[in-house]
Write a structure and sequence with these properties.
homodimer; 114 residues; alpha+beta; Arc Repressor Mutant, subunit A; 6 helices; globular; DNA-binding
DNA sequence: TTCAATAGTTCGAAACTCTTGAACTTCTGT
DNA sequence: ACAGAAGTTCAAGAGTTTCGAACTATTGAA
């Protein structure tokens, strides 16, 4: 079977699902990594080290179905990007405030400045 | 036994717990009711109608232990208030953005103005 | 084309959490 | 002291989460 990584449309995003997805330390960390280096990361690179692959896969599914990330197959790997703009448009300030609160020490911006 | 409604200190608040608490539709609705009418509400008044009391109690416990609400016994009932200022100070913008996103239609303020 | 390696996904079982009725505790008014 | 009101605790069934084992898809040789 081939379920091709379904992503919700912007209108379909549910606030509860977004919060639920971010309420897990592992998933919050994944999102944090995706936002800091703003290039697509494959699953292993985005997830904390030593996390079993099956657990990884589960977390990425939850992030994807909440609409937080977009995952595409690229050869043998799946690369992930944050859907930050869409989420900001639908729920302004929510994810940015969470990400700010989640990392009180380091705050590099998108242009690479510290 | 008498566990006297423990509340975490502001420094003890964990972002994950706050998000987790707000990721449930029932609890989000409770918080929404507590913020709109900004007077203390007892559990039955703050919770959605017809929710079993045991379930109510469970949800209030999670909100309390996440640090989102303060619950005090007042005679035979327990009255609840949002700990909005403390949470805003610890995680600026997070809960306010969530509450804004959670109610796109209605925004009556405390004075009864629309 | 076939093989092995790499990157993820699916399955299944144990551990954990959520929901809810039943029983219990606290406080108030009579 | 008793009945009633408001919550809490307990226990059981349903639903999740975690993670190893088996599986699938893609690539790059041989």
């Amino acid at each position: 079977m081939k379920r091709p990584l379904l992503h919700p449309q912007p209108e379909e995003l549910r606030l509860e699902s977004v919060l639920y997805a971010l309420a897990d330390p592992v998933r919050l960390e994944i999102v944090r990594r995706l936002v800091t280096g703003d290039c697509p990361l494959n699953c292993s690179a985005a997830a904390p080290a030593h996390l079993p692959k099956s657990t990884q896969s589960h977390h990425f599914q939850i992030l994807r179905e909440a609409g937080l990330i977009c995952s595409e197959r690229r050869g043998t790997e799946v690369v992930n990007t944050l859907r930050l703009d869409e989420i900001e448009q639908r729920f302004p300030g929510v994810v940015t405030a969470i990400l700010k609160a989640a990392k009180p020490f380091q705050c590099p911006d998108a242009d690479g400045n510290a």
